[in-house]
Design brief:
heterodimer, A: five-stranded mixed β-sheet, globular, B: mainly alpha, 2 strands
């Protein structure tokens, strides 16, 4: 079955739905974090902002979101895009919502001259790993390391 | 991969062997193993051969790799760790191999045959 949906720029007003969707996957509602994170989209018209955000709307509510940023020279890397949050309402999975969101953010990055998009995924999260791999993502040149303190 | 490209297609061991220039005997043995674990089915008859038995997106590379590994447990153990950790140093090596195993295991588990044979969805 096909889902009728539209995609638009994310707004600060989307925070409540994003908190709900994120809480489903992370088992923790983080309203303060998301409100602060989405503050940047109050001035959505700023074309110089390195942050990109889109929301998919279906049945008159936000059912998916993506937030990404272009960053330059972090860890010595030439400018690249970073997808740091993507989520889909579990009732709206398998309709291509996440793929639509990723395509849109990649299209914007490409239009601004960026040639690589990265993200970070838990290595044991097979569902999300499979999604990114099926979309064309592969292991990049960096490896993330951490130290327990 | 050959069978995943067209799930409806019936292909013989000889056709695969010819295409990749490898031993037909070897291909036939591998196909029999794949059949035994239910990933493909055999079709009898003059135009018989083998056909994929599941949707390619439901078969992961790990499914096939595990077929050739002695361990069939869910625990990642591709570098055979788990027996030699008896002091701090050996445990450090053990941890290193476990790290690599985990990475290999979840990478193979996250790649389906549909992903391998399909074009990139974003470009």
């Amino acid at each position: 079955m096909k889902l009728q949906f539209t995609i638009r720029g994310i707004t600060a007003d989307d925070s409540q739905r994003i908190v709900e969707i994120d809480a489903f996957y992370s088992d923790e509602a983080k309203p303060e974090y998301w409100e602060e994170r989405l503050n940047i989209f109050k001035d959505a018209s700023d074309p110089k902002s390195p942050t990109r955000g889109f929301a998919v709307v279906a049945d008159r509510k936000v059912v998916g979101y993506i937030i990404a940023e272009s960053r330059a020279w972090e860890f010595g890397s030439p400018p690249c895009g970073w997808i740091f949050a993507v989520g889909v309402d579990p009732q709206y999975r398998r309709y291509g919502v996440a793929l639509t969101l990723c395509r849109e953010v990649c299209r914007e990055f490409k239009a601004s001259g960026i040639r690589h998009v990265r993200t970070m995924v838990r290595r044991d999260n097979v569902d999300i790993l499979s999604f990114f791999r099926a979309s064309g993502f592969r292991a990049g040149p960096f490896i993330e390391l951490e130290l327990e303190l | 991969m050959e069978l995943s490209r067209d799930p409806q297609k019936v292909i013989s061991a000889g056709q695969i062997a010819g295409k990749y220039k490898i031993s037909e005997h070897h291909v036939a043995k591998v196909l029999q193993q794949l059949k035994r674990i239910g990933l493909i089915r055999s079709i009898r008859g003059i135009n018989g051969g083998f056909q994929i038995a599941k949707a390619p997106k439901e078969i992961t590379v790990l499914d096939v790799v595990e077929m050739f590994e002695s361990s069939s447990s869910n625990a990642p153990n591709l570098l055979e760790t788990g027996e030699n950790c008896f002091d701090t140093e050996s445990c450090e090596i053990e941890n290193l191999f476990s790290e690599i195993n985990e990475l290999v295991y979840f990478t193979l588990k996250s790649v389906s045959f549909a992903t391998l044979v399909s074009p990139k969805k974003i470009s």
